[in-house]
Amino acid sequence: MKTFYLTDAGKVRSHNEDSVIITKNQSGDYLMAVADGMGGHSAGEVASSITISHISKCFNESFRNMEKSKAVNWIREMATEVNELIFSYANEHPESKGMGTTLVMAIVTKDYVLIGNIGDSSGFVVKDSALHKVTYDHTLVNLLLKAGELTPEEAKDHPKKNVLMKALGANNPIDIDIFDCDMDISAILLCSDGLTSMLDKEQIEKVVLSEIEIEDKVVKLIRKSNNRGGMDNISVAYMEFVESGD
Questions:
Q1: Strands, DSSP E only, in the chain?
Q2: Reduced to 3 states, what is the DSSP secondary structure of residue 218?
């Protein structure tokens, strides 16, 4: 595996409320995760930090050679635990009321790949030399689109396109979507909406399919997002599957 991740404040926001991690445990399994925090008084960055810190700590301490069904339950438990931690923090710090975060995460083992998400941070895979979106954004616009009340053209520039219907710290109980991915993929891309709101899927695909180093791909995606306005924090976690011996 080749991995690289990076986060950037963008061109407009005064500070970065995103958190991102890629970590490998003692069993050789990988965790990738991106959290996009929200809330005033730096509460968004606290929410995203709580999320990434807790999940990565538990992954390295307790995730060991799990069969797929147990890994699915583990992802659900992580979402519940983090949700409770964020609500608890907000209760103890009234100035943080309204804090929350999105989450997109991937568990990669030699036997399976699972991707989970809450909110509008996205998970993609590269398969057959094409980029495919795996996750579903939990936004008001997506809900209206699914119900047939908006066309894709209307949804693209809708004034409420960033209104979330689900986020950690905003819904209790919380339910995370989990996707069981094919194993014949060549890469995984997780990102906050700071990337997908600036670049469309075709623009992202062009970069990830280019013949450059993995670090350069991630840097280029962030640079392109900033060149198009950088309206939000931008985080990218990227993994390429390489043949053993490469």
A1: 2-8, 18-24, 30-38, 100-101, 103-108, 113-118, 122-127, 130-133, 177-181, 187-191, 234-240
A2: helix
pLDDT tens profile 91-146: 999 889 889 999 999 999 999 999 999 999 999 999 999 999 999 999 998 888 88
Residues 6+ apart with CB under 8 A from 237: 3, 5, 20, 21, 22, 32, 33, 34, 189, 190, 191
* Residue 237 neighbours by CB distance under 10 Å: 27
> Would the pTM of this model clear 0.90, i.e. be above it?
yes
Give residue-wise pLDDT tens across range 11-57.
998 899 999 999 999 999 999 999 999 986 679 999 999 999 999 99
User: Could you give the CA distance from residue 150 to residue 147 in angstroms, rounded to a whole number?
Assistant: 8
Establish how many alpha carbons lie within 13 A of residue 13's alpha carbon, considering only the half-sphere containing its beta carbon.
Answer: 23
Tens digit of each residue's pLDDT (9 = 90 or more) over 68-97: 999 999 999 999 999 999 999 999 998 898
Return the sign of the alpha-carbon dihedral for residues 107, 45, 220, 120.
Answer: positive
For residue 118, what are the β-bridge partners? 103
Q: Which two tokens stand for residue 185?
A: 């993929």
